[in-house]
Specification:
Number of helices: 15
CATH class: Alpha Beta
Number of strands: 9
Order of helices and strands: EHHHEEEHEHEHEHHHHHHEHEHH
Radius of gyration: 20 Å
CATH architecture: 3-Layer(aba) Sandwich
CATH superfamily: Alpha/Beta hydrolase fold, catalytic domain
Structural class: alpha/beta
Strand content: 5-15%
Number of domains: 1
Oligomer: single chain
Length: 390
């Protein structure tokens, strides 16, 4: 396996094609005054797409992405794009950060300097990290899988191989959304190599072993199941279609930039701590840079297939199976329904649990300082308990 430097590409012709498509959007009607009740509000999406067409500067955003050190390699036949930034300090801890859907590696860019150089940002320089941020297979600049079976456990295998190739025999892992599933897989499959796991989400497919009749569930756990069921009923249609018919949806989203923007921005609004105004949590350029990564790489279809794959290999455990790697959980208040600690502890070795004062599902992008502080504090506690971390 060879690791080679990579530069995020820019194509003027692709930008012109995007602008032409946006200009020719066929807008559907809507019920007057319905707002977001039926889905993305028409006025909002029209304004966002007008900005994308007339004012958004993809070339400038590519230049901003290129400030980081990008690389590509082939892992068992799969092209993987990743950022690798060395830490400053006496003994940086190797740390792999994994994003989710409909995010991208862009989610992690704000948090990288807070982890690699904490002393410059008000943190303890004694706990810094060598940060690795890969793009999930089928996302962004990584390759699109050509065979079935690329589920989160398979990705965990690839990440372990990547960290070994980078010279990290032992390392830490962090993630939310699909990144939490991959991070869990790393801790479960490679307990001797993974120092600790930090999660800001508990994967929705996680089902700890328990009596099917629910007789051994606590009242708090039963309440969580009811809350999650209500959320799935009102917000979960996207997951169901992506887990069953991703290819059918891909034709529309891969062809229409307005459709792609609507599908993605709806999730950023619904899952973030924004009180219904998505631009309170993210700038237009942040939203559109993330959407543009999907558009220019044509990876919306391959990204959605991860739902199909993971439906066939969900995050479930047999009786007696546990994630034995130490785990920290950071719970942001506007997160998608998160199981109570008792539910999580049925399988995870929870050593650290933080109730955050603000933030939502896209924690690294919404509240990078809070998340970075919690990551540093958790691994400082492990270092204090076990001595130097190699």
């Amino acid at each position: 396996m060879s690791i080679e430097p990579f530069s995020p590409p820019y194509s003027g012709a692709a930008v012109e094609d995007l602008r032409l498509r946006l200009a020719q959007t066929r807008w559907p009607d809507e019920i007057p005054g319905s707002g977001w009740e039926y889905g993305v509000e028409s006025d909002f999406l029209r304004q966002l797409c007008a900005y994308w067409k007339d004012h958004f500067d993809w070339k400038t955003q590519v230049q901003k992405l290129s400030v980081f050190h990008h690389y590509c390699c082939s892992l068992e036949g799969t092209k993987v794009h990743f950022i690798h930034e060395p830490g400053k300090g006496p003994a940086p801890i190797p740390l792999i950060l994994t994003h989710g859907w409909p995010g991208s590696f862009l989610e992690m860019l704000k948090i990288i300097p807070l982890l690699t150089d904490p002393g410059r940002h008000g943190g303890d320089p004694g706990v810094s990290f060598n940060v690795v941020v890969p793009s999930l297979p089928g996302f962004g600049f990584s390759g699109r899988p050509t065979q079935p079976g690329m589920n989160t456990f398979r990705i965990a295998d690839l990440w372990a191989a990547l960290m070994a190739e980078l010279g990290y025999d032992r390392f830490a892992a962090q993630g939310g959304d699909w990144g939490a599933s991959v991070t869990t897989g790393l801790g479960f499959l490679f307990p001797d190599r993974v120092l600790g796991l930090h999660l800001n989400y508990i994967p929705g497919s996680f089902q700890p072993p328990h009596d099917l009749a629910g007789q051994d569930l606590t009242e708090e756990e039963k309440a969580f199941l009811a809350t999650r069921a209500a959320w799935v009923d009102t917000e979960g249609a996207y997951g169901r279609i992506q887990a069953t018919r991703p290819q059918s949806l891909a034709y529309a989203l891969n062809d229409s930039p307005a459709g792609l923007a609507g599908w993605i921005v709806e999730k950023f609004r619904a899952w973030s701590d924004c009180e219904g105004d998505v631009e309170r949590a993210f700038t237009r350029d942040e939203l559109l840079t993330n959407i543009s990564i999907y558009w220019f790489t044509q990876t919306i279809g391959s990204s959605m297939r991860l739902y199909w794959e993971s439906r066939r290999r969900p995050l479930s455990f047999a009786t007696g199976e546990r994630v034995r790697t130490p785990v920290a959980v950071a719970h942001f208040p506007k997160e998608i329904p998160l199981p109570p600690r008792s539910w999580v502890e049925r399988v995870y070795d929870v050593r650290w649990w933080t109730e955050m004062p603000k933030g939502g599902h896209f924690a690294a992008l919404e509240q990078p300082a809070l998340l970075a502080q919690d990551i540093r504090a958790f691994f400082r506690s492990l270092r204090g308990a076990t001595g130097p971390i190699p």
